Amino acid sequence: MKEWIIYLSGEIHSDWRKRIIDGAEHCQLPTRFISPVTDHATSDECGVKILGEESDPFWKDHKGAGVNAIRTRTQIGKADIVVVRFGEQYRQWNAAFDAGYAAALNKPIITLHDPSLTHALKEVDGAACAVAAEPEQVVEILQYVIAAE
Predict the structure, then answer these.
(1) Which residues contact 67 (CB under 8 A, 6 or more apart)?
(2) Which of 5, 8, 86, 94 has the fewest CB atoms in 10 Å of its CB?
């Protein structure tokens, strides 16, 4: 049986990843979940920690973004399905970029967000195969897609 690789992109301030992973385990789905680095400080500091300090915040962020992009691009490339979560509290520009990158690679995308964000995310949702409001809906989509195999 095929192991499905699911990339979980997006906000890091809620338990949505755990809910999807737990739901897939409960349904005994043959899945493996991968994601970007979800510790905010680690992600922000990786570039200067590895490549050297920067006095200008722009170059600090530039280094971190480059190092993180190695992981993100590689993992999205491996993924069978990309789930992109947008939260209400912060603007997740990186998640929007991940969705665009996944779309460029012709990866199936599931967006996950509160319906109040529908207008702001209309272009991202337009590239998605499905738009979910709750992590449990993502699990149901995975169950349907994988069980149909």
Answers:
(1) 46, 47, 50, 51
(2) 5
Question: Cβ distance 106 to 129 under 8 Å?
Answer: no
User: Which two structure tokens, joined as six digits, stand for 144?
Assistant: 């349907």
Contacting residues for 52 by C-beta, under 8 A, at least 6 apart: none
> Using H for helix, E for strand and C for coil, what is the string for 25-71?
HHCCCCEEEECCCCCHHHHHHHHHHHHCCCCCHHHHHHHHHHHHHHH
How is residue 13 written in tokens?
Answer: 């301030």
Cβ distance 99 to 84 under 8 Å? yes
Q: Which residues, at least 6 apart from 53, have a Cβ–Cβ distance to it below 8 Å?
A: 60
pLDDT digits (tens, 9 = 90+) for 1-12: 899 999 999 999
Identify the structural domains of the chain with CATH numbers, from first to last.
4-38+79-147 (3.40.50.450)
